[in-house]
Design goal:
The chain is an all-alpha fold. It is built from 26 helices and 3 strands. Helix 1 runs antiparallel to helix 2 and helix 9 runs antiparallel to helix 24. The protein is globular, with a radius of gyration of 28 Å. The model is unreliable at 212-355 (pLDDT under 50).
């Protein structure tokens, strides 16, 4: 393809440059609108500048990729509801034999879960578990965080649903799930092993520090801790607004009751709020004891002031009330001595239609696992991946047998919109002729039928993936690399797609900014409530450069057409 007219080349380059800056640096001071809006801005500029027509822009949107992304997000939500990720967290610390054993476990669990549930999902769910493990073993968390992020990237390379760029490659190349899996699985397994060995070699002395005897045994990840870390593809989930509002209403009511001596009760309410995240399930049964404790504390404070008359109404008020369980509707009530019932809102009301009996819950979870397994089998036998994922998502919604709105609210619509804008922007940039011209210069040196060509192609993909991000790199290079390899043979064309998938994915380990999974781990670790840690760019780079180069090289030796 020859270069377009100069005006089209210049305007198209400006639109693509704006998209690139906002995609790589979403919070730039002069236009802090974020990646999603930046993607749409780039797409709109391509149409406004007449680099592409509206019809061409619509045609550039790949609905198959969007459908597959949407379906996998919904499936991930229901797997989370079925406690799949809780079991993964518990598995990390089950019968552990020390820090070195935990590094290997994190690498393996992170890689496998990323291949099946995407790397971003695994990093969102497992980061806090990893921080708890580091605290339990009294070692700095950065080796464990590096193991999580790097192994998630490597593991996600093995399947088309492991990461977004693999989705693009699978759709554009028409490779089946089975071809993709068997073509990259050996490289992925060996890559995870080598990555774990590099981590052990670099941090052997640090991981050899013995755990202090004073560390309590209850620091081991408990089932309650595992259950508290909930995932959603769009964002980390928090206590629902409804439950939070009920809690605050109850605490405010307590403060109102204690208005004559508000200092002690306010302290109690604040303490109660601080404990909600870890003790919410036990709070309801302890309310009456807490109120009694607060009453005694406040009464003693008033005694110091010098008067029992002020605290008398408080004591009389609470002496005449007790919390009981309503036999009629199984709800909490505050009952006074005259028999009057004052309803108390529970901290966690069961959602309407929830499964209350253990056997029903177990049956539902089993069905979710079986439906998901059926989806993976359908992928392997070669059914259309997009429609298979959508059908699985709909089957789980029907199986849940209640309003699907909570599930649909967890879908990352900004990510889907980002892909829409990116498709249009990259298609418009291709129409300027710049990528084709640059590829025509590079292509003779990137033939994959000899070692030198593979090395040059690998370096081009590594650099572009860290400069322009891996998904735009795949969109720009995919068809060109495959066409060049197809001239040699059909098997070499397939090998070219697999090399592109492998290198563009592992390239995310090179630097902290190379992959969204890296940024997720960094941000989740920094915001952790009890064991926050800042994973620096330098510490990641010191590990990322040797790991990326070694793992990439070894994986390339194992990829066959």
């Amino acid at each position: 393809m020859v270069l377009a007219p100069t005006e089209k080349v210049v305007l198209g380059s400006i639109a693509f440059a704006i998209f690139w800056v906002l995609a790589v640096f979403p919070a730039v001071p002069f236009l802090p609108i974020g990646r999603t809006a930046g993607s749409l801005l780039g797409a709109a500029l391509m149409v406004i500048f007449r680099v592409t027509t509206p019809d061409q822009a619509y045609a550039a949107i790949d609905l198959s990729i969007l459908g597959l992304l949407f379906g996998t997000m919904v499936v991930s939500f229901y797997l989370e509801q079925a406690d799949m990720f809780k079991y993964l967290g518990v598995l990390l610390s089950w019968k552990s034999k020390g820090a070195k054993d935990l590094i290997c476990r994190i690498c393996l669990v992170s890689a496998i879960s990323s291949a099946l549930f995407t790397n971003d999902t695994s990093c969102v769910v497992l980061t806090e578990f990893v921080l708890k493990i580091a605290r339990q073993n009294n070692v700095p968390p950065h080796p464990f965080l590096l193991a999580l992020a790097s192994s998630a990237n490597i593991g996600s390379s093995a399947t088309p649903i492991g990461n977004p760029q693999n989705l693009v490659i699978a759709i554009q190349s028409s490779l089946s799930f089975r071809e993709f899996l068997f073509g990259l699985l050996p490289a992925m397994l060996v890559g995870v092993l080598v990555n774990a060995l590099i981590l052990l070699c670099m941090y052997w002395r640090l991981l050899s520090v013995k755990k202090d005897e004073g560390i309590a045994l209850d620091e081991v990840i408990s089932e309650e801790d595992a259950t508290s870390h909930r995932f959603s593809p769009a964002a980390m989930s928090h206590p629902t607004a409804k439950n939070s509002q009920e809690l605050n209403t109850m605490l405010d009511t307590m403060n109102t009751w204690s208005s004559p001596i508000s200092i002690g009760s306010t302290n109690y309410a604040e303490t109660l709020r601080n404990r909600v995240s870890s003790k919410q399930s036990n709070l309801q049964g302890n309310i009456s004891g807490g109120i009694e404790s607060t009453r005694n504390s406040n009464a003693s404070k008033e005694g110091v002031v010098g008067g029992d008359d002020i605290s008398q109404p408080w004591e009389e008020d609470f002496r005449s009330r007790r919390i009981s369980r309503s036999a009629l509707n199984d709800s909490d009530e505050m009952v006074d001595d005259e028999g009057g019932a004052i309803p108390v809102q529970p901290l966690e009301e069961e959602e309407e239609g929830s499964l209350t009996k253990p056997w029903r819950r177990l049956l539902w979870k089993t069905c979710v696992y079986l439906v998901t397994l059926g989806m993976l089998i359908a992928f392997i036998v070669g059914l259309n991946m997009s429609w298979t994922a959508l059908s699985t998502a709909l089957a789980l919604m029907v199986l849940d047998f209640k309003d699907a709105q909570p599930c649909l609210q967890k879908v990352s619509y900004p990510l889907l919109i980002f892909f829409v804008g990116m498709f249009i922007t990259v298609d418009g940039f291709n129409r300027t002729g710049i990528p084709s011209t640059l590829w025509n210069i590079t292509e003779p040196h990137t033939r994959i039928n000899h070692v030198g060509g593979i090395i040059v192609l690998t370096l081009v993909i590594l650099v572009l993936s860290n400069v322009a991000s891996n998904v735009p790199t795949v969109l720009l290079l995919g068809g060109r690399v495959a066409a060049s390899a197809a001239v040699i043979s059909r098997s070499q064309e397939k090998r070219a797609w697999l090399i592109l998938a492998w290198v563009s994915t592992v390239a995310g380990n090179l630097s902290l900014l190379g992959s969204a999974a890296n940024l997720i781990v960094c941000e989740q670790a920094r915001r952790a409530q009890f064991s926050g840690y800042n994973l620096s760019f330098r510490s990641h780079l010191m590990f990322g450069v040797p790991s990326t180069l070694i793992v990439t090289a070894i994986g390339l030796l194992l990829i066959r057409g």
